[in-house]
Amino acid sequence: MIVHAVLPGHGAVALWAEDPERRPARGGHPFAVPARTLAKGLGLAADDVTAKRMSLLLPSTASAPVSAAGPTPAGVELRAWQVPVLVLTSADALAGDDHRFGASVRYLLGVRSFAAELVARGQVLPSVVEEPDGPAARWRPVLSGVDQARFDGLCDAMPPICRAEQTSADGRPATDALHGTLAALVDHEVRRRLGAATAEPTDWFHALTGSPRCTEDAAVVRTLARQLDSWHTELSRRNPMRTCFRLRTPDQNPRGDDWRLDIMVQAVADPSVLVSAEDVWQDYDSGLYRWVADPERQLLADLGRASALYPGLEAALAQRQPVHMSMDVAGAYDFLTHAELLAQAGFGVQVPSWWRRPGELCLKVTTTSVDSSIAMVRDTAVTRDEIVNCRWSIALGNETISEDDLAEFAKHKIPLVRFRGQWTYLDRQRLAAGLRFLRRVATGTMPAREVLLTAGLRPTGDDIPVRSAGGTGWLADLLSGDIDGRLPDIDAPAELTATLRPYQLRGLAWLAFLDRLGLGACLADDMGLGKTVQLLALEVLRRAERPRPPTLVVCPMSVVGNWQREAARFAPTLAVHVHHGPDRESGDAFAKTVGEYDIVVTTFSVAAKDTAELTALEWDRVVVDEAQNIKNSGTRQSRAIRAIPARHRVALTGTPVENRMSELWSIMDFANPGMFGSANSFHARFAVPIERYRDQDAADRLRGAVRPFLLRRVKADPTIELDLPDKIETTQLCNLTVEQATLYRAVVDDMLDRIKESDNIQRKGLVLAAMTKLKQVCNHPAHLLGDDSVLAGRSGKLARVEQLLELVLAEGEKALCFTQFATFGRMLQRHLSVRFGTEVPFLHGGTSKQVRDAMVDRAQEPDGSPILLVSLKAGGTGLNLTAANHVIHIDRWWNPAVEDQATDRAFRIGQQRTVQVHKLLCMGTLEEKIDQLLERKAALADMVVGAGDDWLTEMSFQQIRELITLSPEAIVE
Amino acid sequence: MSDALWSRRFLDALTTIGLGSTWLPRRRTTQVQLLSFSVAKSVVIATVQAPDGEPYRARIAMRAFGAGEWAQLQRAIAERTRYMAKLLSGELPLDIESVFDELDLPLLPRSSRDIAMDCSCPNWEVPCEHLVAVCGRLADAFDTDPFTVFAWRGCPRLELLDRLVSLRTAHQSRPATTRGSRSLAESMGVFWGSELPAPASPPPLAESVRQPDLVLDQVAPPDISVRGQPLVDALRPLYRIITGT
């Protein structure tokens, strides 16, 4: 049996076989092997193949087709024969060494490895195509330059049998045949590597990783196909080569001590393919000529264009066949200064790595202060005004430059020098500035504040940055950036009723240390690590020492209640006042009230409105919670908050602030006004190099400069022993909007009237109905009213949900949101998907098993839906959703067992991270009261509530009224 | 050595041979309108309209080089890499005149005998105001496309470049493209495929850092967004997976 391959135009390959020893069959090719026999013989599973008949043009004598096994006699002609074939979707099942394979199958295997190589190099693009079964998303190869040459080579080498299907009198054109098969193999290979699972037809993008069928309508498919096609055409049409310049240092130059500029030609599609210009001038048989029409002409034109940008190149053009150019250090510097220009004009440019990332020339300061940091935390003797000893030197990167080298470098006219055996760039202006500085202050003393300012981010005015290089004492500790690790242990104050975890104690020690120095701090621990409690502990600690003016906490409306409750719970010795609402105090009355409290909590909007009022008072500390809200330093709100004077400032934020430049600056500038220079200079020195040029050095410098003032612990960081439990449960208190509160009161009044006049049997029903309605009000007014009105801005709880999800998404994490109301779930689904611009699947009791499984699979994928809404009935059983590590209970079940069961969807075997459970409650409503009931008498309540609804009917009218009436401390926005 | 200086060179040449000094200052303020203007081998022809409304035909002629002279010039230019590079990149360096001078075939007129002008107007002055306008237009044409001067002298740009390239690369043989040129009927003897190994792999790859999603950044991607982010950003993670980086 000899197996042959035919390239079918669509699909990967059609296989057929002939067996000259068979008894000739009538009708069709007499010796062709039946499809089923062939599939069995090749060990192909029935699922992978489709059997059909194909009309092939084969060399034939007058009576029969000629066999591939023997010689082809003279005088044969092409005749069409019906042949049974197996159409395969991939060539995966074909082993390379099967002796039954004819040359055409081995050729196909060559095409398969070409496809695999293209995929491995990422030379593929997505496309959308109309297929017989409907629109499909497909991957296709991008052939340019070298790859096009290889494609052409494969076309030339194609065995004629491969294109023998009778689509015309001359079979199928070789390029069509190869295009079809290569595309099918590439599509299959990409999906194999992506681990594509078969799934329901979906949108085209997801169809690239799942089943290829996509669901867009015909017009959308046409538009997409046109856009993707022109992208592909544009990419394939590019000039396959470009001229490339490579600078070699004298160390790298094999001949002589000169710098050398090599002229080379580079494949655009694969920059690692580089050939010397010598090959273009001399080696006319080189591979270059296979993929570029006229390389010499193009190289000459490129050199002309490059010499217009970089006139130094003209020296090379004096040679008849320039290959490289020798130059001295001045010439090398001239080239380096033109390198960016050439690169922007599309030339390849290879320069030594030190040019792109030069070591930073800086001043180093070593400080010695008398007091050690251990003393720091215990007494208040040292301040920023302490005088410390400083020793200054000039360093390149981390290496200090000796005085001899400095004198030597100062003489150079070209800023390229050899330092410690390495060529490097030395900024002459900075060097001069550094030398001037050293002449002025070699060693000496300085106030600590001054050192902090110069060693931070603020330019010295001498055009050379200052970095700290260690020393001893608290200042050196602070500047070293390792202050968190060096601080001595501290005991939590006795008045604090919470038990601090070890990392929280370290956080407290750090806050206390900066507090004593009057240096602002930014505590940026991940959400859920307890920033509030650390701050409360600091307040308790300080206020136990002596009386102080109050501390002002500015936070979003949605967490005001949280502050109040957490303070009451963990720091009962602190008197907390909420300054908020239309009838909030002002003037003398306010000043008097403030004097009686330790902490005053207010919102961003009130702080912006009452600026004058707040600025006039004396504050010990200003704390900004969710400090990302002041990231826009130009806004009125942000300016107002910065203007409030205080002895000490703390910013709290849970977002990964160190990666967001403008946010980082405004937060650090709030904490330590002026220490980080202006927003503009910060932008130029750090944001641009880091964000635009991915400048690692600038990033390191920035990290070093902010490290003393920024403490961020990340849950996922295994190097930090956070000692976290597997599950953190927090209750988040939400406020009511005016609309919610009005509705709430109306429902309560109505219900109480009716309950009063009811008998016992009616009462149970009425109470249950009232509770459901009140829960709906707490969720959202639209939920109670059941209308389709806009959701945004009308519910404190929704605001909190959005805020939590924002943080979750910013961390690249996922959340499960539970509600017991399917109607509310659907409202949320619409609202959240628009709000976050992502799909938000909603899994509820009515979801079919098939759809539910698909949703769960999607949610478990790394790039799957970050938010999944689940209703109680659906959430109860059989789901495994460990990709999410946040669980948000939007409304409460009042049955801890049910809630735990839902939480366990995320908290299961396979969950690697700490699961955070956020339970949302509206303050002052029955939600909070029942929660308190549950918490206070957990065991009993569990029994009572869990046992059924009987307890409701057993409550007296008074008890019911107490339970559902809105408490006076409810915060209304 | 900017292209913009060719007009200057041309006007200087005219001045040197005594044809320019009087009218040069007037050339930008002339009231003459050009109805047509074309540069052909050895002659520039324009139809002009004077303020009086009468149309005239004005011509500026300069002898084109013959085929043999151009061959000499082209050989000399092709030898110089710098000129080749500049010409192929669309620049015409001024000092290329030195090649013409060396062969004693000056590119621009050296004496009043090298250039001839006439106009159908009744004015006896040469150049008349119409010719002044045409000279000015010609000078501008040299700045817009300096190769105009070569076209005037008998060798337009494309012809020149092709000729220069073939002079430099004349000895090369190009691989013939045989792709699909043989029909099935002509391929009976090798119908089942030869036992030759599959075509060669691409050139060996140097050790270098690869960028898995290079194709996404090479040309402007289509304006398609996926879940609110640009298509290319949504694709990047997939490319990292398929390339195993």
Notes on the protein architecture:
- The complex is a heterodimer of chains A (973) and B (245).
- By secondary structure, chain A is α/β, with parallel strands linked by helices.
- In chain A, helix 24 (636-643) links the parallel strand 23 and strand 24.
- In chain A, helix 19 (531-545) packs across helix 20 (560-570), helix 26 (679-693) crosses helix 27 and helix 36 crosses helix 37 (938-947).
- The model of chain A is unreliable at 372-382 and 939-949 (pLDDT under 50).
- With 245 residues, chain B is of the alpha+beta class.
- Helices cover 34% and strands 13% of the residues of chain B.
- Chain B has a four-stranded antiparallel beta sheet. A two-stranded antiparallel sheet of chain B has the order 5-6.
- Chain B starts with 5 loop residues before the first helix and ends with a helix.
- In chain B, 28% of the residues are buried.
- Classes of the chains: A alpha/beta (973), B alpha+beta (245).
- The interface between A and B is large, with 97 and 71 residues.
